[in-house]
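Revision sheet: structure tokens.
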Amino acid sequence: MYADAGISGTATRNRSEFQRLLADCEKGLVDIILTKSISRFARNTVDLLETVRHLRERNISVRFERENLDSLSPDGELMLSIIASYAQEESLSISENVKWVIRKRFSQGRFLAYNIYGYRWVADHFEIIEKEAEAIRFMYRAFADGMMLTEISDALANRGIFNRKGKPFGKSSILRILDQEKYRGFSILQRTYVDDHITHQKKMNKGEFPRFEVQGTHPVIIDEMLHQEVEVERERRRQAGAVRWRRATCFTGKIVCGYCGSTFTYTPNNWSGELTQFQQGHYQCSHKRKHGAKSCPSKSLPVYTLRQVCCTLLGPFVGASEGDQFEEVWIDDLVDHIVAFCDTLEFHLKTNEVLTTPWKNTAKRDAWAYRKASAQQDSDNSEVTA
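Predicted:
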């Protein structure tokens, strides 16, 4: 028997037992699959039909008890597609009902308890974990005093303070803690929302739905005075070009100009439409940005190019295969800083090893090649349809 308990049927990739069933089918261990109903097999019409067609090629029958259907019957696929569409719509209806209930709870100031660093949930309320609260206060105070995020992480590690997984705090983790309003005793509900009940991907709520501020949800760890000091320091760093908050990448604070020693700062792409992988912004020497092109011979460094270089240079260190996508954790875990020259990059690793590699901005050329290939594919598809 294969059963995925408590897992949504809208996506097959997250269903381990379903994947085990398909693997056994590939091995020739299964001839007939018996299932209670179409909705128990899959609620995603595309996934359902693709899976059934693949199994039919192997002469494996899928029989649905409630609908009295056999996928190998002559009219099986037609009936499956019709009934599966109803199952998918039923899933959408359930999803919308659940969303309505959650939003109603938010509007009433009620929310589900969840795991958050610094607190434990006891009975019906949060309690402070004092040891973790001390680490949080240290992060706020250290940042307000001018320490960089990497310095804060190192200082915590030297004190034997790590995250709940026993690892040093990363820069992104510290930033999230500095952003967390719950440490000041209140919660902002519905920061994110799920747009598609099939993919279940979360999106930031930028005005699509109301957000709710609920006071008194958590015991206070950070007082308002310390919070304001942190905000003042953030603004100082913005003015100094140290960081573009919330719009930065894992490379922020790590790239140093090889000519003048200034930090490279990030500039996002201003294109208002959907951005491609070739339009993810660039880094530029902060001294050159402020004082003009003649003040420094450095070149702008596109994020796309940085990612390509890291895949080639750092991929082997983490066991990545050729063609694997870039992971930001590579930079956090391996790289101390990067020195940028016009045609070479020096990666100074945390192991004190230095890797030097040439670089060239190929973003425009690669984007043009990508558009040309896409246009050719669309043309080929049109000819086949015709």
